[in-house]
């Protein structure tokens, strides 16, 4: 396991197979500035490739989880220039949006589960982010909003694609068309969050406990669950069952099951080998 680099937007610790990524710009309401977008996918890939983490917990600091997109990202002339030939400007903006989408899709693409712990406001782009997590938890004061609509634009980084898979279609449409805030209780009742906690301390303690339960299981089995659940969400039951059979034929080995049975016989916790490290192609 190698040391992680330092990041401008996050504080990252790895302990007991749990990586804790904590947004660290409360003075700016943890807005998603240029550094954030550059660092988030790199951070998660670094955790996956360079640590023994088996689960990631994303949390925040200050009053709010995140105020969402820092509009300076779009005003940066190196990113999305708003002048010049309309065709070339449109092509460039499309590419910028695709890159932003990729930055959040990495939460689904990494092979380990990602849990989001949310306090206060989860606004605009921050909602895009947590929709890409495996599971979400929040405090009683948390609220969510598809803020892009009241600002005069259509949300474009994942909420409109992922939220209807998490909540009823009609409600998502209402939230998108109006941009109204919806609170923790409604989010829990409608399935966006798993649990609601009285304060940030209690929420983090509980989420870390859930993360520890995940990390105690075979990392190969957990990875298979994430792969299958993501695939099944986007495919038919029949296609998903066929993929499951093919996956099991290639990936299933009895070694971890034997470790489980042996540990149970001794009334101990099984100690599973880590997954093989991810390496870049042609890495020196």
Folded structure, characterized:
This protein has 284 residues and is α/β, with parallel strands linked by helices. It has 2 domains: 206 residues, 2-enoyl-CoA Hydratase, Chain A, domain 1 (Alpha-Beta Complex); 47 residues, Lyase 2-enoyl-coa Hydratase, Chain  A, domain 2 (Orthogonal Bundle). The strands form 2 sheets. A 6-stranded mixed beta sheet has the order 1-2-3-4-6-9, with helices on both faces. Strands 5-7-8 form a 3-stranded mixed beta sheet. The mean pLDDT is 93. Pfam families: ECH_1. Belongs to the enoyl-CoA hydratase/isomerase family. One of its GO terms (cellular component) is cytoplasm. Its EC number is 4.2.1.17. GO terms for molecular function: enoyl-CoA hydratase activity; isomerase activity.
């Amino acid at each position: 396991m190698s040391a992680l680099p330092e990041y401008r937007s996050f504080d990252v610790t790895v302990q007991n197979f749990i990586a804790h990524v904590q947004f660290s710009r409360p003075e700016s309401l943890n807005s998603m500035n240029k550094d954030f977008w550059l660092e988030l996918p790199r951070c998660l890939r670094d955790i996956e490739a360079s640590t023994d983490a088996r689960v990631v917990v994303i949390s925040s600091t200050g009053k709010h989880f995140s105020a969402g997109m820092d509009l300076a990202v779009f005003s940066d002339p190196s990113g999305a220039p708003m002048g010049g030939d309309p065709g070339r400007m449109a092509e460039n903006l499309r590419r910028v949006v695709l890159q932003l989408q990729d930055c959040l899709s990495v939460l689904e693409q990494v092979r380990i589960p990602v849990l989001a712990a949310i306090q206060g406001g989860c606004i605009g782009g921050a909602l895009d982010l947590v929709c890409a997590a495996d599971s979400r938890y929040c405090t009683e004061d948390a609220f969510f909003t598809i803020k892009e609509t009241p600002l005069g634009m259509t949300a474009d980084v994942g909420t409109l694609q992922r939220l209807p898979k998490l909540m009823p279609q009609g409600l998502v449409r209402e939230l998108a068309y109006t941009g109204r805030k919806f609170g923790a209780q409604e989010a829990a009742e409608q399935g966006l969050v798993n649990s609601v906690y009285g304060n940030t301390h209690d929420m983090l303690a509980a989420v870390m406990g859930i993360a520890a339960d995940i990390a105690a299981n075979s990392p190969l089995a957990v990875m298979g669950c994430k792969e299958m659940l993501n695939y099944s969400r986007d495919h038919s039951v029949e296609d998903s069952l066929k993929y499951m059979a093919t996956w099991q034929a290639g990936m299933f080995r009895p070694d971890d099951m034997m470790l489980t049975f042996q540990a149970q016989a001794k009334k101990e916790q099984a100690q599973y080998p880590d997954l093989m490290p991810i390496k870049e192609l042609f890495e020196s």
